[in-house]
Amino acid sequence: MQITDLIPDPTALERIATGSTWAEGPCWIPETRTLRWSDIPGDRIRQWHAATGDVTDYATGVEFTNGRTLDRDGSVVQCSHGLRRVERDRDGVVTTIADGWGGVRLNSPNDVVVARDGSVWFTDPAYGITQPREGHPGEREYGDHWVFRCGPSGEDLRPVVLDLDEPNGLAFDPSEHLLYVASSSAEEPVIRVYERDGVRVKNGRVFARLDAGEGVPDGIRVDVHGNVWSSSHRGVVVFAPDGTRLGDIPVPEVVANLCFGGDDGTTLFLAATTSVYRIATSTGDAAQR
């Protein structure tokens, strides 16, 4: 497989929204045909409406939300830097899923996925308590940065990945037997992959590395073929299931995160610094099929 098998026209990148401070956490909402994303320093959630092309604020004063994903019932599960929690937005009513482990608070949940069994998996680096524009100053109360897993209502919360300095984006392969996690550490900017066995993951290894000058991987997605799509400082990089680099999509701004969406699920949306872009593909998200 080549990059042109996945992206018919790599030059057809289109900017559909701008005006964000640092765009992150894109998620396609099929019910409303909208793309929702975070403007983290702007402390707001924005939306692009497919029907009209308009961009509006979905909510403001949102406590610095970051990554989000669809829940099994169509509601949105999202990460809050400011409240140091993972939360659920159901028709504008926001409730806590998880905000602490072992009697202490989480750091600042960053990105999240929901498995087919309804379990919630999220990364917990410290950007929301160390970066002044992305949350509130605070302490790492459990003293590290882990990936956690819990049940749909926050039950059975437990750390599942403990060997990354700065876990960031995450995604399952189509079988949900593999969990990919992006490490945004400058010392080890890699994507690692782990074998999933129910509530546990094990046998972690380096899956892929970005090239020099591409910065660190942040948000990632896996398509229906098992290819891994990673954000980079230069755009998006696509890796085959065996880690072979298939190619890249140049983007004029640093890409923080990405998602598949659109009416048929094959449009790739990119949250990139001040703007959101889209490009047509011939594939879709592993979680949508």
Q: How would you characterize this protein structure?
A:
This protein is mainly beta and 289 residues long. The chain contains two helices and 26 strands. The strands form seven sheets. It has a four-stranded antiparallel β-sheet, with no helix packed on it. A hairpin with a 4-residue loop joins strand 2 and strand 3. The longest helix is centred in the N-terminal third of the chain and has 4 residues. 48% of the residues are buried.
Alpha carbon gyration radius: 17 Å
Q: Specify the overall morphology.
A: globular
Total beta strand runs: 26
Helix-strand category: mainly beta
Strand order of the largest sheet: 1-26-25-24
Q: Helicity level, as a percent range?
A: under 10%
Specify the biggest β-sheet. Answer: 4 strands, antiparallel
Nearest-integer average pLDDT: 96
Low-confidence stretches: none
Q: How far apart are the termini?
A: 20 Å
% residues in beta strands: over 45%
- Please count the helical segments: 2
What is the N-to-C succession of helices and strands?
A: HEEEEEEEEEEEEEHEEEEEEEEEEEEE
Produce a short descriptive summary:
The protein is mainly beta and 289 residues long.
